[in-house]
UniProtKB/TrEMBL annotation:
<dbReference type="InterPro" id="IPR002477">
    <property type="entry name" value="Peptidoglycan-bd-like"/>
</dbReference>
<dbReference type="InterPro" id="IPR052905">
    <property type="entry name" value="LD-transpeptidase_YkuD-like"/>
</dbReference>
<dbReference type="GO" id="GO:0008360">
    <property type="term" value="P:regulation of cell shape"/>
</dbReference>
<feature type="active site" description="Proton donor/acceptor">
    <location>
        <position position="380"/>
    </location>
</feature>
<comment type="similarity">
    <text>Belongs to the YkuD family.</text>
</comment>
<keyword id="KW-0573">Peptidoglycan synthesis</keyword>
<comment type="pathway">
    <text>Cell wall biogenesis; peptidoglycan biosynthesis.</text>
</comment>
<dbReference type="GO" id="GO:0071555">
    <property type="term" value="P:cell wall organization"/>
</dbReference>
<dbReference type="Pfam" id="PF20142">
    <property type="entry name" value="Scaffold"/>
</dbReference>
<dbReference type="InterPro" id="IPR045380">
    <property type="entry name" value="LD_TPept_scaffold_dom"/>
</dbReference>
<dbReference type="Pfam" id="PF03734">
    <property type="entry name" value="YkuD"/>
</dbReference>
<keyword id="KW-0808">Transferase</keyword>
<dbReference type="GO" id="GO:0016740">
    <property type="term" value="F:transferase activity"/>
</dbReference>
<protein>
    <submittedName>
        <fullName>Murein L,D-transpeptidase YcbB/YkuD</fullName>
    </submittedName>
</protein>
<keyword id="KW-0133">Cell shape</keyword>
<keyword id="KW-0732">Signal</keyword>
<dbReference type="InterPro" id="IPR036366">
    <property type="entry name" value="PGBDSf"/>
</dbReference>
Amino acid sequence: MANRRSFTLNRRHLLAAAAPLWLSTTARAASAPATSNITALTAAFYAARGGRPAWAGPARRQAMDALALADRHGLSAPDGLALGEAELTQAVLTLAEALAHGRVDPATVETLWEMDRNQVDTPPLLAKAVEDGTLAETMAGLAPQDRGYQGLCDGFLRYRAIADRGGWPPFAMGATIEPFASDPRLPALLPRLRVEGDLSDAAASMIGPSGGDYGSVLQEAVRAFQVRHGLEADARIGPATQRALSISAEARARQIALNLERRRWLKRDVAPERIEVNTAASIMVYWKDGRPVHSMRVVTGDADNATPSLERPFASVVANPPWTVPTSIAQREILPRGAAYMRANNMTIQNGMVVQRAGPNAALGQVKFELQDSYAIFLHDTPSRGAFERSFRHLSHGCVRVQDAVGFARLLLAPDPARLARFDAALDSGETVRVATGRPIDVRLLYWTAFLDGQGRVAFRDDIYRRDTRLAEALGIALQLPRPDDRRADADDVGP
């Protein structure tokens, strides 16, 4: 039976509760200082227990099991066996807060972020769990339960285990390795591709003993690696592929830990019908009835015009939309080109703003999906189709260009034949017409540089917006990733 005596927080306990238990980062996990409100959380926990101590008898074993959860989530926790009552409470609450809300307030590291935070009152929840003997289960349930998060947890443990075994051989940067060429760097590539799963054991057995010839089997494995990293899948081991190959298993584990942290910020309940754009990968996925049913490529903001992270609904599509050009784009890229350029691109000045009339070559294409956000960000069509064939698609001024925007609009309107017919008629007429979807549809613009691909593998992308870098600094993580190649759009591409 638990000790029923009253537990009072005195000055010694408060000082202990305020001491950081998430120590400086090791090579094994992301960490951060203790939350600033840990003293208030501790007081609330004991208030929910009527002032009684929590960790006598079997409850201490519960706490040990709960703290052991940290490792899977890319977090670190102290050894609870060495902790007293108040210190152990702080450790459990700190981990609970990290799992429920993340270690870092996104407002301190993100400048373009409008997402709904997860909201959980952890002290009374944990106080009840201690009484019920379900502390570890309750703590595990605080973390996101979706496949994307839990799969990344598995990936973190896997990459960290690879790092603990010594990682993979370093890949030396140098000249491009062409298919069917010979190169002394190729033998070191084989164990790397095998340990990450891009080269199966059966395929590896078909490669010659030296491994120095770049034949078709090894080329296929390199293509799989390139696809998983968002690179041109041409089997040429050029600068971009070599940069990805140069990243250590330890760095990849830390990158996964950062993305786990970013996911913990978000509310857990998401709409069963929604549109999710991974702005780091320039990929859009449409979810219906809680399942991903359609995906396509998109173009997102370049390094100087980052697409924000936001969650907002839209309830209508606009056929044949005009474009009111933002003042910054007009002053920097349109007005200096003069009246002839504006006439050639069907632009006029209306009420002091540059406006491009709707038309087949207009920057917004044939359809726009309007969002209700403070950044004036939206999804839209584009006449510039070539960008969708590129592996690197961070080319816009921040808005999201959709590969088959007209087809996607028709997909969203298909449940109501009358709305679909109105949209099709508007496209044929060339008139600007707003067509309601008949229901609000959530749009989530997310930033995942490590995520599960369609085959359940961990995929990686460059930190094009340097958000991993800022988050790593806030968490005290030493992150060693090569700086991404910030390729720019064509100078004539002035769309949003």
